[in-house]
Every structure is written in structure tokens, then in C-alpha cells.
Amino acid sequence: MHSRGARDWVSGEYLGFHGTELLESFNPDWHHIFPRAYLRQHKVSEERWDFFANIAVMSPSTNIRFGARNPMGYLERYGVDDALLKEQLVTDRQLLTVENYEDFLALRADALAAEANRYYDSLIAGTRHDPPRPPQARKEQAPKRRRKESAVPEAQFFASRQEQLGKTESICLPGRGVR
């Protein structure tokens, strides 16, 4: 999602990176776009709740705010626009109903697989280019004591990950879905 310039759906802050440096202290929450409790209430089989296609990266505070609400409800309540959704490959707001859950999973799984393959291939080929980012608007806050962030260069992170996995091919196959 970094190469897409993905931002948190409430704060608007970019997720986990400072430039091309991956922040070691980045501690994302894995938000269920369709929360588990919401799916349980609507009698969706438990084995369908935790698919990767149902996960978006959020800050912990955003994830807590959204709670167990239905997706259309929390997106409307917090004014999440389509541009923010598309950054995390949620491309069709109309599919964010329990009646369309299976179609949502299929569409998003294909989009995630295609994006992962595109990104991985660009890393291997050395052709990756980050999108330009406009300056990020900051909300007024009281000064906080911050510990110094240490960062790991992204290329180093992916090279070590590839070495650990022993993979030289793309990590996902379009059309097969992602879990």
C-alpha cells in the first residue's frame, strides 16, 4: 500500500513510512473492513471473516473508532471518501453491504494479488518509483515527547524477506485470491 500512498482513513496520515524508510516502530492495526461482530450478527460463516481481502491497514485509534459497525455506517460517520478507499484497493463502495460480501472479497482479493505482483516485480526489476506525495496536513496537537524513530531501508527489508522466503517469483497469483 506504500507505493499507492495509502493513508489512514480518519487521520489521513501515511501508513508506516517516512519517505522510503520503513519505521521500525510502526505498529498497524489490521482492521476488518467488515468487522467480525458485524458478520456474526448477519450469520456469515466464521471461516469467511478473516480473509486477507477483508483487512485494511489502520492506526489503532481509527480501528477502535470504527468498532463493530457496518462498513457503510462507519465510512459515512467519519467522512471516508472514495479516494482514501481506493488507496487500499477498496474500489466499489456499493459492495460494502453484507449482501455483497462475497463479491467484495473476490474483487478485492484479485486487486490485492495484482498489486502485490506489480509491486514485487518492480522491486526485482529495480524499476519501482514511489508516487510524489503532497505535504501532509498536520492537526494541531500539544507537543509530545517522541523517541527517535529508527528506520530500515525498504529495499533492504524486501531483500531480507525474499532471502528468508527463498522466493524469486511473484508472491501472489491474480485470480486465485488471497487469504
Task: Output the keywords.
single chain, 179 residues, alpha+beta, 3-stranded antiparallel β-sheet, two-stranded antiparallel ribbon, 6 helices, 5 strands, 35% helix, globular, disordered C terminus
Q: Care to give the gist of this entry?
A:
This protein is 35% helix and 9% strand. It has 179 residues and is α+β, with helices and mostly antiparallel strands. The chain has one domain (2-129, 150-165).
Could you characterize what this model shows?
- The chain has one domain (2-129, 150-165).
- 35% of the residues lie in helices and 9% in strands.
- The chain has six helices and five strands; from the N terminus they run βββαβααααβα.
- It has helices at 36-41, 60-66, 71-77, 82-87, 101-125, 154-165; strands spanning 17-18, 21-23, 29-32, 55-58, 151-153.
- The strands form two sheets. Strands 1-2-5 form a three-stranded antiparallel β-sheet. A two-stranded antiparallel ribbon has the order 3-4.
- It is globular and about 45 Å long.
Number of strands: 5
Large-scale geometry: globular
Low-confidence stretches: 134-152, 168-179
Which value, in Å, is the CA radius of gyration?
Answer: 17 Å
Structural class: alpha+beta
Classify the helix fraction into a percent range. 25-40%
Main beta sheet strand tally, sense and closure: 3 strands, antiparallel
Number of helix segments? 6
The domain tally reads: 1
Strand fraction equals 5-15%
